[in-house]
Design goal:
By secondary structure, the chain is an alpha/beta fold. The chain has one domain: Alpha/Beta hydrolase fold, catalytic domain (Rossmann fold, 3-Layer(aba) Sandwich), CATH 3.40.50. It contains twelve helices and eight strands. An eight-stranded mixed beta sheet has the order 1-2-4-3-5-6-7-8, sandwiched between helices. α3 packs across α4, α5 crosses α8 and α6 crosses α7. It is globular. The protein starts with a helix and ends with a helix. InterPro entries: AB_hydrolase_1, AB_hydrolase_fold, AB_hydrolase_sf, Epox_hydrolase-like. GO terms for molecular function: monoacylglycerol lipase activity. It holds the Pfam family Abhydrolase_1.
Length: 316
């Protein structure tokens, strides 16, 4: 009898923990099914119709510590402008499957291409934030014919992390990810903003949902795989090959470095300097436009949604 009540109580608290982290995506989540490395997988995405149809589409690519949920404040403005908005959760993130495969930006770009082809979208504006910026660059290099315009919002990968961040063995990365907590996620996300606000807590919850899932060990492994992907697959040397019209939106207070915890105090001052990185990327990408947002950190579309939307609208 004691074991029965203990088990019921345990289930109650697990459910309570899960619900406390849970967030509802702002639009219906759909699934695109395909085969990957001889296994069936499902890729989650939102597909939001425009208020007035213009025949144009915009694709929003999320960062490593996020999923499609965090575009929720941006989507309404885009559909009002007449854009069909596609918001994927990349495989390995959010509501998508998290298969044990060889993760690469080439793979994620190809998955995104398959999704767009499945939705009969031949060409779109591609917006990439943070890691999504690296993916957007790779997508634009591989499939330029499918890119109408490219928008990079504080993309990571504007420097080659493996040249100054100490290498970490995969097993160490997996162990670190398995030991993640709500507090550790929140502490990292707090570094994205000059000033933390209660409104940002929802994005921590969106990331922390995975902590209460039975498959979290697999998620932790995928998180380690994708850290390796960012570390080992730089795009900075190929920015000069981008051939589509490009807008760089750079929050000037951003000092994000992938693997920053492994740097010395002196190195932390040297790298992740987004004001300088943005200018350099602007010079590397021929004909690109640079917008610098003073007082804004790593996520302009959350911290200053109105300004972000204004700059995007002007560019489009």
């Amino acid at each position: 009898m004691f074991e029965k009540y203990f088990f019921i109580t345990l289930l109650f608290f697990v459910g309570l923990l899960k619900s406390s982290f849970q967030v509802d995506y702002p639009y219906e989540v759909r699934y695109f099914s395909f085969m990957l490395e001889n296994q069936p997988v499902k890729m989650a995405y939102m597909d939001i119709a425009p208020v007035i149809t213009t025949g144009k589409t915009i694709v929003l690519l999320h960062g490593k510590n996020f999923n499609g949920y965090y575009w929720k404040e941006v989507i309404p403005g885009l559909v009002k402008q007449g854009y069909r908005v596609i918001v994927p959760d990349q495989l390995g993130w959010g509501k998508s499957d998290k298969p044990n495969v060889q993760y690469s930006f080439h793979l994620l770009a190809t998955n995104t291409k398959q999704l767009l082809e499945g939705l009969k979208i031949p060409k779109a504006v591609i917006v990439g934030h943070s890691m999504g910026g690296m993916l957007a660059v790779r997508f634009s290099l591989l499939y330029a014919e499918m890119v109408e315009k490219l928008i990079l919002e504080n993309p990571i990968g504007l420097e080659d992390y493996k040249t100054f961040v100490p290498y970490q063995a995969l097993e160490n990365l997996v162990e670190k990810e398995k030991n993640a907590t709500y507090e550790s996620y929140k502490k990292y996300q707090q570094s994205y903003y000059p000033v933390w606000k209660p409104a940002y807590e929802q994005y921590v919850k969106a990331q922390a949902e995975a902590l209460s899932e039975p498959a979290f060990p697999q998620t932790a492994q995928v998180n380690a795989f994708t850290y390796e992907m960012i570390y080992e697959q730089p795009v900075v040397y190929e920015l000069e090959n981008i051939s589509v019209p490009t807008l760089l939106i750079i929050g000037q207070s951003d000092r994000t470095v992938v693997g920053k915890d492994y740097l010395t105090a002196e190195q932390k001052k040297m790298y992740g300097n987004y004001p300088a990185l943005g200018k350099k990327a602007n010079q590397q990408i021929k004909g690109s436009k640079l917008v610098e947002l003073e007082g804004v950190g790593h996520i302009p579309h959350i911290q200053d949604t109105e300004r972000f939307q204004k700059e995007v609208a002007k560019f489009l």
